[in-house]
């Protein structure tokens, strides 16, 4: 809104009053908005010139609004994606070649059933089945003494042959493609529930206990497990629970869920991805067993 300060005044009192309001408006507007204008320049300006600062504020407000919209976008929110989700969406399939490349180190692997990856430690010759990049990256970095550590999604590539030539696709691009799929309009079933949400989110939110895996045959009595966090914590499976000997009290503690076990040993992170089952010189990530159990329950 334009403020008209110049008027035809007839008396000295009116001129004095106008000068007073000009000085007052100068103090309130120019100084508060940190404009580099002298009072003399201010008095010579036309009122419309004062709108520039307001327009600039509107532009800054629009930029902030766009940034907020970008934060609401799953592609910028750090939505958790793993190999199984890429596998279920069709971006990865069984038998695909997966390669880790970093600082001259090349590690070749294959995508297995349900999107898992089998990794063999060259130092210990132990084999582990993993479905998350974070523990896989950590194992590679430990086994090959990696010093320069890039972001894990940038270090892995899907390698395939297209028209008689080898094509490498960074896993980061597949992750972004998967997230873009989540932004598409969702279909709804007859009950009005979003099918995309039902397909993608339900398995992740499904409550699974150690007893569930035990009853389904994924875990057996006396199976040895190890929690790999800030240090290694060893335990066993006993009657569908985690049996852990507390080093402080020297008594056995029993836990029905991985979360309560993680809390007891005061660790952080994804407990499913940090716990491994040791069988026949192999280590299987508990996350893989959980995912297999969820697939079986669908």
From TrEMBL:
The keyword Coiled coil applies. Residues 56-74 have a biased composition (Basic and acidic residues). Residues 48-74 are annotated as: Disordered. Keywords: Coiled coil. Residues 157-184 form a coiled coil. This is Uncharacterized protein.
